Amino acid sequence: MKNITDVMLTCGIVESRFQGESSHPICIHRVAFNNGKFALIRSVSNICFANGSVLKRSSQGWFLESKPEKLLPFEYISEQESKRRFRED
After folding, report:
1. CATH 2.40.50 fits 9-82, yes or no
2. Per-residue pLDDT tens digits for 26-79
3. d(CA 16, CA 37)
């Protein structure tokens, strides 16, 4: 029988910004993961997280300070690519 462990994945909010129209703003976050990868993420609720906040993922989902948080799909990218896309998006 395989031993299943709950691997915790964490990421810190490096920077955040609003974009889009004033009637429909979108908050984009650039995050750095504990595995050395980066990504641009958005919350389903479109909440803007504070820089330095830490998101954690377990088998139960994503959490921000022990509160469940749903994220839209994202892809891992390099640090340079995350900086470039954050400036362009």
Report:
1. yes
2. 899 999 999 999 999 999 988 899 999 999 998 889 999 889 999 999 999 999
3. 17
